[in-house]
Every structure is written in structure tokens, then in C-alpha cells.
Write a structure and sequence with these properties.
Arc Repressor Mutant, subunit A; 10 helices; 295 residues; Sufe protein. Chain: A; 3-stranded mixed β-sheet; 3-stranded antiparallel β-sheet; GMP Synthetase, Chain A, domain 3; globular
């Protein structure tokens, strides 16, 4: 399990400014649910002063993504747009008293969402600078420009660093050579030598049967069930189809206003156990709301 600071836990269990901002005049969307993380940042900006009066977020992702998004909204409210744009992903991590290295990509996503929201408010077309033919990591759709920018901004020096900050290289590992080429370029510019040999991200055990996989899923659900039962709820496994896991939320957990965060927390535990990106889906229509619960 990751070693989270108390402030990360605080913003995970009690996220600030979560939900729709009805009168937002600047909206930024980054990431994608298929890649495991998606964030929408909504800003209410005072036109005369460019001061951010309110900021809300909606996110699909792990506890670090929720905490980073929550922290970001707190950090930018009251700032002008130009002041807010100076907030870096490292500033977000520092505000939370640090993030696990493997979760730094959550703070990077927050910074990009802010850039996108400000561009939207100003009537500009925001782009993540993706260039045709420059896609390096096909698993997570991460391009060369983003990798290069992240290496420079955060002074990265290994493939594992790049994976931690962008997810690139965290899937099939076939893009590691491309990442190394970018590292060599940037590190040469700053007068450093790249040292190859960073171990690739661990992948799911080869040869795991469907039965073994289901047993792992059931073990994770069994581990969280006592906590849910203490609050009058429960969860049961309904079906597994590829990377989609269907569950039934029972008792007090069914329709709970904090159900989404409960599911996100369970989803994160499942991904850590299975060592793959999966999606957990409640079987009842409308059960997955944007509000949140215990992990």
C-alpha cells in the first residue's frame, strides 16, 4: 500500500469543492476514464479582475487524484488567473505534504486541468501539445511533448520517474526505449548523463487463470466488507467481464451520497492487487454518483 500523508487522507475523506459548479465560466477536462484517471475543473472567474471566486472539481481516479484535485481548488481560489497558472504540480504535492512517487501523475493532471480551464475562460483552444506521430506510450496515450515537458519541469532522470509522473511506460513497457531517448536529450541539455537500467513496472503474473483472478477480487472485497458492514452496508461481486468488475452495493451503501468514493477506493485496491487497470461498476442504474464515501 502507498504511504499517504495525513493531509492527503484528509482531502481524500473530506474533499473540498467536489461536484458541479453551476455558474462556472471556465471548464477544463483532462485525462480519460479508459486510462484510469479523468478530471474536470470548473472555475468561476470575476471578469473585471480575473480573480477566481470559486473552483469545483469532478474526478474519476484514485485517492491521490481526489486529494490533488481538492487541494488544487483550495490553492487557486482568491488568486488571479495569472497567479493561479504559476501553481506547479510540485506545489500541489507540497500542499499535501507530499505524494507517493507513484502518484505524482495526479498532481500533473491537476496542473493541466487548470491550464485547460483558464484557456476555456479566455476563449482559447487549449491543447496538450500532442503532435501527430509523436505518441510515445500507446497504453496511456502519452505523447513526446508531455514527457519532455514533465522531465524538464520536475528534473526527472529515470524511466520509472517518467512513469510515476505521467503513467507512460507503466503498461506493456514497449515505450521504454522511446522514453530513454527523450531522457537522454533533456539530460544532455542540462549537462547530465542518463544511466539506463531502471526496472520496468511490475505487470500482472503470467498465466493467472480466470478463477485465480476472481479469487483475488473476492479477497479484496472481503477485506473491505467489515468496514462497510459497520456503517450498515455491504458489497457483493456480480460479474467480471474483462477489465470491468460489476458489483452490487447493499444496505446503507446502496444510494449513499458517498458511494462513488467508496467504489473508487475499492477500485484502487483492486488495481494494486491485480496489477492492472480495471473499472468497477455498480449494477444498479444511477448508483455511481459523483459524491463520495469511505475507501
Amino acid at each position: 500500500m502507498w504511504d499517504y500523508s495525513e493531509k492527503v487522507k484528509e482531502h481524500f475523506f473530506q474533499p473540498r469543492n467536489a461536484g458541479v459548479l453551476a455558474d462556472a465560466n471556465g471548464v477544463g477536462d483532462v485525462g480519460s476514464i479508459s486510462c484510469g484517471d479523468a478530471l474536470r475543473l470548473m472555475l468561476k472567474v470575476e471578469p473585471e479582475t480575473d480573480i477566481i471566486l470559486a473552483a469545483n472539481f469532478q474526478t474519476f481516479g484514485c485517492g491521490s487524484a481526489i486529494a490533488s484535485s481538492s487541494a488544487l481548488t483550495e490553492m487557486v481560489i482568491g488568486k488571479t488567473l495569472d497567479e493561479a497558472l504559476k501553481v506547479s504540480n510540485q506545489d500541489i504535492a507540497d500542499y499535501l505534504d507530499g505524494l507517493p512517487p507513484e502518484k505524482m501523475h495526479c498532481s500533473v493532471m491537476g496542473r493541466e486541468a487548470l491550464q485547460a480551464a483558464v484557456a476555456n475562460y479566455r476563449g482559447e483552444v487549449w491543447s496538450d501539445d500532442h503532435e501527430e506521430g509523436a505518441l510515445v506510450c500507446k497504453c496511456f496515450a502519452v505523447d513526446a511533448v508531455m514527457i519532455e515537458d514533465t522531465i524538464r519541469t520536475n528534473n526527472l532522470s529515470s524511466v520509472q520517474d517518467v512513469t510515476n509522473y505521467t503513467k507512460a511506460g507503466g503498461g506493456c513497457s514497449s515505450c521504454h526505449e522511446g522514453i530513454e531517448e527523450i531522457l537522454v536529450k533533456v539530460m544532455t541539455e542540462r549537462g547530465e548523463a542518463f544511466t539506463p537500467g531502471a526496472a520496468p513496472k511490475e505487470v500482472a503474473p503470467v498465466g493467472m487463470t480466470n478463477l485465480q483472478r476472481i479469487r483475488k477480487i473476492e479477497a479484496v472485497l472481503d477485506a473491505v466488507r467489515p468496514q462497510l458492514k459497520r456503517d450498515g452496508g455491504d458489497i457483493e461481486l456480480v460479474d467480471v467481464e474483462g477489465k470491468t468488475i460489476y458489483v452490487n452495493m447493499k444496505g446503507a451503501c446502496s444510494g449513499c451520497q458517498m458511494e462513488a468514493l467508496t467504489l473508487q477506493g475499492i477500485q484502487q485496491k483492486l488495481m494494486e492487487e491485480l496489477k492492472e487497470f480495471i473499472k468497477i461498476v455498480p449494477t444498479k442504474a444511477g448508483a455511481l454518483s459523483r459524491a463520495s464515501c469511505h475507501p
